[in-house]
Design a protein that fits this description.
Blueprint: E1 3-7, H1 19-27, E2 32-39, E3 45-47, H2 68-72, H3 92-99, E4 105-110, H4 120-130, E5 137-141, H5 144-153, E6 158-163, H6 170-176, E7 181-184, H7 191-199, E8 203-207, H8 212-220, E9 225-228, H9 231-242
Parallel strand pairs: 1-2, 1-9, 2-4, 4-5, 5-6, 6-7, 7-8, 8-9
Antiparallel strand pairs: 2-3
Helix pairs in contact: 8-9
Length: 243
C-alpha cells in the first residue's frame, strides 16, 4: 500500500511548514507529514524550509541569525495575506506536542545541506524521546553525513538518504551505508531504478508528487510513499486504486 505524506503540510493550499498546514494535512487524511528543521541563533529547532526567511515570511535574513523570539515575530503566511490570519514559524516542540497522540508518521528533514547546524542531531533526538515518537518518525537529509552522525546517537530510528540527482546504484549505496530508505525526486524513478532499489529491499519515499497521473504511476510501480503538496488529491487517487 502506497502511503500519502503531506509535503511541508498541506502546502498546496495553506502556508507551508505552519501549524495550520499540518492540521489541514491531518484533516485531509494524510498518513504522514514531511517537514524541515533548522536551528535558531539560540539553538532552538524550528520548522522552516529555506535557509533564508525571505520567501515564506515578511522578514529578511538567514534563519540561523535570528533568535527564536525574533523568528516568531515574523509571519510565515504573509504570502496569503488576508486569507489565514497570522501564522508564526513553528518550533519542533510545538509540532511534536500536536502529533504525539496522532497516528501520523513524521518525516523530519534535517536541513544541513547549506549550514551544518552542529549539534542539531542531539536536539532533535532529545525531542523525539521526550514525546515518545521514535516509532513514528523517519529522519532524512540531503547531507548524508548528518544521517550517519545521527544514527550513531539514535541507531534504532528509521533513516533515509535524500537525493535530487540521478545516482547510479542508489540501492547499493544505501545498502552499503545501512540506510533503509531512499528519498529521491520522483522523476528519477524509472523502472530500472525502482528495480535496483527493490533488489536491496529499500523503502522508497519520493517527492514532490502533485498530479493524479504521477500518483497513479508511482503506485503502480510499488513506491512506498508519495510526498506531495496536495494530500487530499493523493488520498482520493490512492483510494480509487487501493480501495
Amino acid at each position: 500500500m502506497t502511503r500519502n505524506f503531506a509535503h511541508r503540510g498541506y502546502s498546496g493550499k495553506y502556508p507551508e511548514n505552519t501549524m495550520l498546514a499540518f492540521r489541514k494535512a491531518v484533516e485531509a487524511g494524510a498518513d504522514g507529514i514531511e517537514l524541515d528543521v533548522q536551528l535558531t541563533r539560540d539553538g532552538e529547532p524550528v520548522i522552516i524550509h529555506d535557509e533564508l526567511v525571505d520567501r515564506t515570511t515578511d522578514g529578511t535574513g538567514r534563519v540561523k541569525d535570528f533568535t527564536l523570539a525574533e523568528l516568531q515575530a515574523l509571519d510565515a503566511s504573509y504570502i496569503y495575506t488576508g486569507q489565514y490570519g497570522r501564522n508564526p514559524i513553528p518550533t519542533l516542540r510545538e509540532y511534536c506536542e500536536f502529533v504525539k497522540d496522532l497516528p501520523i508518521v513524521t518525516n523530519i528533514e534535517m536541513k544541513t545541506g547549506v549550514y551544518e547546524y552542529l549539534g542539531m542531531e542531539e536536539k532533535v533526538w532529545a525531542m523525539i524521546q521526550e514525546y515518545h515518537l521514535a516509532e513514528k518518525v523517519i529522519i532524512s537529509s540531503f547531507n548524508h553525513f548528518t544521517i550517519l552522525r545521527m544514527r550513531e546517537i539514535a541507531p534504532k530510528l528509521k533513516y533515509g538518504f535524500l537525493s535530487e540527482t540521478w545516482i547510479v546504484g542508489a540501492g547499493r549505496y544505501c545498502h552499503e551505508h545501512g540506510v533503509p530508505c531512499y528519498h529521491p525526486m520522483f522523476r528519477n524513478l524509472t523502472h530500472e531504478v525502482v528495480a535496483e532499489l527493490k533488489k536491496y529491499g529499500l523503502e522508497i519515499n519520493t517527492y514532490t508528487v502533485n498530479t493524479e497521473e504521477d500518483v497513479r504511476d508511482l503506485a503502480a510501480k510499488g513506491i512506498d510513499t508519495v510526498i506531495g503538496n496536495f494530500p487530499e488529491l493523493t488520498r482520493d487517487v490512492l483510494a480509487s486504486i487501493q480501495g
